[in-house]
Amino acid sequence: MTIVARSHLKLDEFLPYRLSLASNAVSQVIARAYEEHFGLKMHEWRVITVLAQDGELTQQEIVGRTKMDKVTVSRAAQVLERRKLLRRVTNADDGRSLRLSLTAEGQKLYARVVPAALELEAEVLEGLSEREISELKDVLHRLEAAAERVLSRR
């Protein structure tokens, strides 16, 4: 595919802007539900989900997995630790870092939130066919990979 050079930018047609708007709109729906029903901020939910799926990780591994910055991950982990939803222990391989894992309470909360998350996802995707959803996921993965390639060159 050839990209045509343009001399001006129409914001409403600028793909990064459209992606940001769509992402923000979906995130607001989900964040509001997590906050109202489970007392979780979006960043806290992401940390819980990654730990539920991947098991014990360092904060830096969570940063890499979620693309959240290290301060955001650290703050989310502190909140979740105070709520007794995760535990942070010194990393035996590197005393300067911490390893995070869900507590039994954190695992229970995750099990309660998942059905609500899946229901919200279905609601947001309502009106899209299975094929469109599959194609959208494929395009998003390819865009993420392309963005990573661009970042690695800079």
TrEMBL record:
Pfam families: MarR_2
SMART domains listed in its UniProt record: HTH_MARR
PROSITE patterns from the UniProt entry: HTH_MARR_2
Keywords: DNA-binding, Transcription, Transcription regulation
InterPro entries: HTH_MarR-typ (IPR000835), Metal_resp_HTH_trans_reg (IPR052067), WH-like_DNA-bd_sf (IPR036388), WH_DNA-bd_sf (IPR036390)
Boundaries of every HTH marR-type domain copy: 12-145
GO molecular function: DNA binding; DNA-binding transcription factor activity
PANTHER family associated with the record: HTH-TYPE TRANSCRIPTIONAL REGULATOR PCHR (PTHR35790)
The name this protein goes by in its record: DNA-binding MarR family transcriptional regulator
Native species: Archangium gephyra
